[in-house]
């Protein structure tokens, strides 16, 4: 289970560029739950994901995962519990290393790495066996540099690598946003397949309302560093893209309302 | 013939340095200038050990260890004290100048009568051919030079194979990934900073080893001997990449390229010196060469586009 307790983060504090990216985020993600975070630009959705992944240390609040208090854990240590797929399809793999070498790196995620040869015949067979179901013909190319593959293929492999050892939590950061529509759809299907088969706990940031409605069990909507909607269970089953758009509109109108009220009220006090 | 043998021996010795630069520059993508200091450190540590009567192989190993410590220091300055990579290297290199003087106790340690790693091969050769010179293709070659060449060739082959194996181990692949994509390797649960420190230690260990052998070959260690060595290593790698193709990233090909590049570079230098190149100009020529190798491909691309590109003004 993932639990965030009043997590706050301010970037560039005390400067004109100060951004209150997270203003006290609290949530619980049960084991086996797949949740999507949606929100406007700058709402803090990617920031929440990065806070969990450990890309930066939060200012206050606690993060618990699988019974561990990981608030102070550095990024590489959290990786023993967390699998990640990034928005940039090139970020999750090392381009000049071969497919097999990249995958074998993920087979030791969170484990010690010694002076044994990374690849052997048995491991190579295992790799071929597990990338064959992707139906991309990659099993015959495992000694090619991974940089020779398309973005969609690389993202599919990154997803496979992130889940090769079953993670306690899978983090997906708009992982289909940079792909062409066809690859995006492929990767989205693969994501759902893997998460369902392995019964993974997953947190996905997405821009696509379509995706948010179709893939996950739960939708968390963020705005200005806070969670404004949390849709799960019965409600999630009935929610449509239009409902989400309405929810966005409501949030936006409230912003406008705040601003216009301030404008009206200001002369009386100034 | 002596010239060719000399160039080959020197090339092989410096190819150890090139392998070190290959690790830092190409694999870790870390512009590590510690090299200029750590090659001298390797040489001076070995020289002092040899003069005090240490076993030559142990002394060589000592030089390598000293180099590793220097690389470790540079890595630590960069990763844990957040000093820019170039500056970390400069700091350690500068500090090493004084350390080298301390190690040697003066600026130059001659070791004409000390043992060296080639003694064993020399004894073997003398046993089978008890004259001072051996004839190769009709040219008389001093046994001592031949022994050194054979020893160095065996050592370089061994180190090259070992390095290739290392880069394919679990930790070796992690080091390579840390150089190419730190974000990715962190997501796989590896502290990329320690991989960088470790890689730099291995890199400068090879450089120290190169210095250790170099000192035994030329018969002395000198506090000035490291100046410009990093650029030499770079030039060797660039030549090597021209030989095996830059696109290839298989570890074996990278290592072979660096080895062949260094030997070829030394041969070219030997020929240039023979033709009357002033030895004082050597470093200038090397620097110009590296400059050209870095810039010309870009220009060539631009000119190529101008001449053959579809802008329509090429023939006008």
Q: What are the segments of chain B in which pLDDT stays under 50 over at least 5 consecutive residues?
A: 310-316
Oligomer: heterodimer
Give me the strand/helix succession of chain B: HHHHEHEEHHHHEHHH
Mind telling me which CATH architecture of the largest domain in chain B this is? Answer: Orthogonal Bundle
Q: Based on CA inertia axes, which overall geometry of chain A fits?
A: globular
CATH topology of the domain at 2-95 and 165-239 in chain A: Rossmann fold
Count the beta strands of chain A: 10
Number of helices of chain B: 12
CATH topology of the largest domain in chain B: ABC transporter involved in vitamin B12 uptake, BtuC
**What number of structural domains do the residues of chain B give?**
2
**Global shape of chain B:** globular
H-E string of chain A: EEEHEEHEHHHEHEHEEHH
State the fourth-level CATH superfamily of the domain at 2-95 and 165-239 in chain A.
P-loop containing nucleotide triphosphate hydrolases
Major sheet description of chain A:
6 strands, mixed
Low-pLDDT runs of 5+ residues of chain A are none
* Rounded Rg of chain A: 21 Å
Helix content of chain A: 25-40%
What is the top-level CATH class of the largest domain in chain B?
Answer: Mainly Alpha
The averaged pLDDT of chain B comes out at 89
- Largest beta sheet: strand ordering of chain A: 6-7-8-3-9-10
